[in-house]
What we know:
Layout: E1 7-14, H1 20-28, E2 39-43, E3 61-65, H2 74-84, E4 88-92, H3 99-105, E5 110-120, H4 124-130, H5 132-139, E6 144-150, H6 156-164, E7 171-176, E8 182-184, E9 200-201, H7 207-216, H8 218-221, E10 225-233, E11 242-249, E12 258-265, E13 276-289, E14 294-306
Parallel strand pairs: 1-4, 1-5, 2-3, 2-4, 5-6, 6-7, 9-10, 12-14
Antiparallel strand pairs: 7-8, 10-11, 10-13, 11-12, 13-14
Amino acid sequence: MAEQKNLPVYLFTGFLDGGKTKFIQETLEDPRFHQGERTLLLMCEDGEEEYDPSRFCGPNIFMRTLENEADFTPEALEAMGREINPERIIIEYNGMWLLDTLYQNLPDTWVVAQEFLFCDATTFLSYNANMRQLMVDKLKSAELVVMNRFHDGIDKMELHKVVRGVSRRCDIAYEYGSDGHVEYDDIEDPLPFDIEAPIVEIGDRDYAIWYRDMSEETKKYHGKTVRFKGRCLQRKGLPKGSFVAGRHVMTCCVEDIQFAGVVCNWENAANVPDDSWAIITAKLENKFHRAYGRKGPVLQIISVEPAEKPEEAVATFY
Length: 318
């Protein structure tokens, strides 16, 4: 039996009136993107704009709708795949649905090739304030965030800070409503600590930012000496001479608080009290550790100094 070929999925997320439909319509009118490939266009909401198939630049666009999150199942998607036999899939995803629904239910051969988030720049901050969890859910894995209807009266920095509070890796594009021209975000994000210092001092307010940056670019920190206040945990299954140090981090709300820790190696590891706070000074190495089962950040301890629990024990990005 021939091995099944992976199908690229182009995922468009965002809230109503964010510009998803308009962009997909224009994309399917562009001969550089659409040259007759069998394409499943899966719509998960009814927006104000409607598609005009007569303007698509080629045939073989098969439009299907799933309006209820409960219907977004592997069985439903696989049935569409058998019916249409697409070469690629475009999904216009409902902004009120969590992305876990999508990623947990995609058939094995459906692989997200690109993920775009479309937002109305004039309402972005309001959505973020009132539906923070849903906004973070869409920002965390987007490769490109498009701010539609942008104008000079909107403070780019305010939008930038919200996006960068969740992701430092995605691109941000501002599309002006007046003439449609696009500007890409070029605001620099200096880290709130000096990575070139002999000891990289991580303040209590900066742990979340440091942990994310270190996790995304671990090699950058290889060989650096760091110091931070963290919670020390003893865990079964860790090799002798190891413990975990870190802090709980909240990305958007109480429900998403998770412990963000790093494995520490120290000959006196067994003497570190479980669930105690300490000031950790250590050399960071990017190396294999059994606790990860792969390469990852490992702190070679220089010193562990007992410390009081900080006033704000949960680290945030703000």
